[in-house]
Design goal:
The protein has 282 residues and is mostly helical. The chain contains 14 helices and no strands. The chain starts with a helix and ends with a helix.
């Protein structure tokens, strides 16, 4: 098992797609920090602040003194919290999309390279190959979020003069939950690629899942059931992507999202193992 993991780690390091996916996400974080900086700078201008507070007419009519707005501007908290800023990005669709793409490409790479045919008959159980790949995908996910958070903090230091840090424990707890849910999504996308045995099919289905395309279909189904059977059902609450984006830093009860993602991950791993055990390696 350790030998399989070492070989998969080498394959992961050699995959250009993994680095490209991470670089694109880091670039998005940089753009987000830059645009946030511009929004913050707008509060430094008295006229812009008046527009934001719907006080522009009073300012022009001299009903409100400029000194009042200046005092209000000085009292406004213009410090950025790196924990809060990053926690807004993590539940978004972008991390889920990039991790899904990597999961599919990494899963299919061993098939196209002939690795499975070579190693398939040399292991006691083919499911060991699945667990090896899933272990390496977990390593990549940890690196993905660690590196992206490091760059997020770096951009915050560059673009903002004042930083404040909220509770590190709360942030770490939130990240732990998001890591678990995103990993369940990666397992699901790996299962799609394994079952379909196609890079194109795996990528299309995974991207559609990450971008919540199937949510639109579910909404139409729910409307159809309500219109013709006069029954209200809520299937969206059981979809993995809906639960990922529904958990933020302030979410109180996360039991249900974690349970749904956990079940999805376990079922996905089981289907991956079953597919490998039944697959013809010749």
């Amino acid at each position: 098992m350790l030998d399989l993991i070492r070989m998969d780690l080498v394959r992961m390091r050699k995959m250009k797609a993994g680095f490209i996916v991470l670089l694109i996400f880091v670039a998005i974080i940089g753009i987000n920090a830059f645009t946030t900086k511009k929004l913050y700078e707008s509060t430094q201008d008295i006229n812009s602040l008046a527009r934001q507070l719907d006080l522009e007419d009073q300012l022009e009519a001299a009903d409100i003194p400029v000194t009042v707005l200046e005092s209000l501007r000085d009292k406004m908290d213009l410090r950025i919290d790196p924990f809060e800023e990053y926690s807004r990005i993590v539940p978004d669709l972008m991390p889920a999309l990039f991790l899904s793409i990597f999961a599919v490409l990494f899963t299919i790479a061993d098939i196209s390279s002939g690795f499975i045919k070579t190693i398939g008959g040399q292991v006691k159980r083919r499911s060991m190959i699945v667990f090896s790949k899933l272990t390496v995908m977990l390593v990549y996910e940890l690196l993905f979020f660690a590196v992206s958070f490091g760059f997020s903090l770096f951009f915050d230091v560059i673009f903002f003069d004042n930083l404040k840090f909220s509770s590190a424990g709360t942030f770490l707890g939130f990240m732990g939950m998001q890591l678990f849910m995103h990993y369940s999504l990666m397992c699901f996308c790996s299962m799609l690629a394994t079952v379909t045995r196609s890079t194109a099919a795996g990528l299309i289905l995974s991207v559609m899942t990450a971008l919540q395309f199937f949510d639109l279909i579910i909404i139409l189904i729910q409307r159809f059931i309500k219109a013709y059977f006069e029954k209200t059902v809520n299937i969206l609450q059981y979809l993995i992507t809906s639960n990922i984006i529904g958990v933020n830093l302030d979410t109180a009860d996360v039991t249900k999202p974690l349970l749904i993602c956990g079940i999805t991950g376990v079922v996905s791993v089981a289907l991956c193992c079953l597919s490998f055990e039944k697959r013809d390696m010749v």
